[in-house]
Design brief:
The structure holds 2 protein chains of 2 kinds. Chain A has 10 helices and 4 strands, in the order H-H-E-H-E-H-H-E-H-E-H-H-H-H. Chain A is α+β, with helices and mostly antiparallel strands. In chain A, helix 2 packs across helix 9. Chain A is elongated and about 105 Å long. Chain B is an alpha/beta fold. The two termini of chain B are 22 Å apart. Classes of the chains: A alpha+beta, B alpha/beta. Chains A and B meet through helix 1 and helix 8 of A and helix 2 and helix 3 of B.
């Protein structure tokens, strides 16, 4: 097929949007609503995951060291901890610092500390893990190191968080699958109705000797254009809606800040992937739906 | 040009549409196909356009053996045939010239050729001033002329006209058949299906009568 013919067919496709404007409008609305449903669900899921991630970052494991460890051993331990892949942060917390902090916390028992000159507390490392799912492995590795007195890990917190993460993952997968299936069924029915109305046109094209590709390309162009338009509309609506929700959420942030949450993911951080997702998903779903519906009638 | 050898067509519901039909139509002939409703005329047309395949027998059209022609290659055959139907079969969202040009577009004809050829063919059928009109803005006779221009534009060796006058008033019907006769005089084979015996008696020529799926008459009137 010549390039000029491809251009002609694409122009025909775009023109058909206007010629069949009622059905085009129906397809556009169905596509846009479907994209919005899926888009908002994705945004909800990634924000929930971000919240869980923020809480996850609050985990802290305290490694108490034996009394007789030397400064060299402490340094070596620090290096080992930093090199562990699941350790995101490690800070040495000396027994003197711990003692000073204890004194600061127990101001009403100041007299008790006057008789204690040296800190009775052990040196320690405070670490944070990257992935709490691997917490057990990390703790085992730490326990194997020499000079460790004990390790204090927030086991209850970790178990709750792991449970929440797996619940959210399973729920998201189920909701997304159901949504995508429902949307695909609705979209393909709309596309089929739209193509059904034009089966006479398709049969005439076949009769005058047009190839299947020649008949399908305008439908493909029409589908892609409709998908892009619906995607663009979904971007505008999502952008506006998300900003409003983020503003409402941000106004009451004091409730969430103790958990390390600073509000929804900013729109600017997700705008590019969201735009690409909407446009590509819109174009792909719409084009596939249109071409599949057309194939039925293009067969001789 | 067209040859059917012992062709039988049975539809999935068991109806026998054509029974052991054999006929041969040579290049440049003008042939009337007549017969009552359900005689098998439309089945014959569908066979020739490769819309259906025979259950038995051989169909040859314009050098194509339709028994061996794959369905996804049917466009190669159809590009060499012009057709005119009772219901005009025009694309309503396209103007007269776009309907005609579509045939040339579909064979990747050069744009310059399309720009020259389409107005020329439309002027041949007397629609020079109505090229920008949509089918809905044209009378029945004018729509049939657009269909004839579309059938002619690719200079086919065969034109199949299936009841082309069925939806037209008598005066326009005569004009359309005159036009088909004129096309035939230029060397194009014309196969015209009709149930109006008046035309057959008036124009004469080879006439094939089909009754209950069989050729019961094939001679010159």
């Amino acid at each position: 097929m010549k390039l000029g013919s491809v251009g002609y067919l694409f122009k025909q496709g775009l023109r058909n949007i206007w010629v069949n404007r009622i059905m085009s409008l129906a397809s556009f609305c169905i596509l846009m609503v479907s994209l919005l449903l899926i888009g908002f669900t994705v945004l909800f899921i990634i924000n929930i995951n971000m919240f869980i991630g923020s809480v996850e970052n609050k985990n802290e494991v305290i490694i108490f060291l034996e009394d007789d460890v030397t400064d060299t051993q402490i340094e070596q331990m620090g290096v080992k901890l930093k090199n562990m892949p699941n350790v995101s942060e490690s800070v040495f917390y000396s027994k003197d610092e711990a003692f000073e902090d204890l004194k600061a916390q127990m101001t009403d028992a100041e007299f008790a500390f006057t008789y204690i000159e040296d800190s009775p507390l052990p040196d320690a490392y405070r670490i944070k893990v990257r992935n709490i799912d691997d917490m057990d492995g990390t703790l085992n590795e730490i326990n194997r190191m020499e000079g460790i007195f004990s390790v204090k890990a927030p086991n209850d917190f970790v178990n709750i968080l792991i449970g929440m993460k797996s619940f959210v993952s399973v729920l998201s997968a189920m909701v997304m699958t159901a949504l995508v299936v429902v949307c695909l069924v609705i979209i393909s029915n709309t596309m089929r109705a739209s193509v059904d109305m034009r089966r006479r046109e398709i049969s005439i094209m076949r009769l005058v000797g047009a190839t299947a590709a020649f008949i399908k390309i305008p439908f493909l162009a029409e589908g892609v254009a409709m998908g892009v338009l619906a995607g663009a509309a979904a971007i505008v609506i999502t952008g506006a809606g998300y900003s409003e929700v983020a503003k409402m959420f941000g106004a009451d942030i004091s409730m969430w800040s103790p958990m390390g949450i600073s509000g929804l993911i900013p729109l600017k951080d997700i705008f590019m992937p969201m735009t690409a997702g909407y446009i590509l998903a819109g174009a792909a779903i719409s084009a596939a739906g249109t071409v599949m519906s057309t194939s039925k009638y293009v067969k001789v | 040009m067209i040859e059917l050898r012992n062709v039988s067509v049975v539809y999935p519901n068991g109806a026998e549409a054509l029974k052991d039909v054999s006929l041969k139509i040579n290049d440049g002939e003008f042939v009337f196909i007549v017969g009552g409703s359900g005689a098998g005329k439309s089945t014959l047309i569908k066979l020739l356009l490769k819309e259906i395949s025979p259950n038995e027998g051989l169909v040859l059209v314009n050098g194509f053996n339709l028994n061996n022609l794959k369905k996804n290659k049917a466009h190669k055959l159809r590009r060499k045939i012009g057709f005119v139907f009772q219901d005009f079969k025009l694309i309503n969202s396209m103007t007269a010239e776009e309907n005609v040009a579509f045939v040339l577009r579909s064979i990747d004809a050069p744009v310059k050729w399309i720009r020259n050829r389409v107005p020329y063919v439309l002027s041949l059928v007397g629609l020079k001033d109505k090229v920008k009109r949509y089918p809905g803005e044209l009378s029945g006779g004018e729509q049939q002329r657009v269909a004839m221009a579309r059938a002619l534009v690719n200079d086919p060796m065969l034109i199949i006209a299936d009841e082309p006058t069925g939806n037209l008033d008598p005066t326009t019907s005569w004009e359309i058949i005159d036009l088909l006769q004129e096309i035939n005089r230029c060397g194009t084979t014309v196969l015209m299906v009709t149930h109006e015996h008046e035309f057959v008696r008036h124009f004469g020529g080879r006439t094939i009568k089909i009754n209950e799926g069989r050729v019961v008459f094939d001679d010159y009137i």
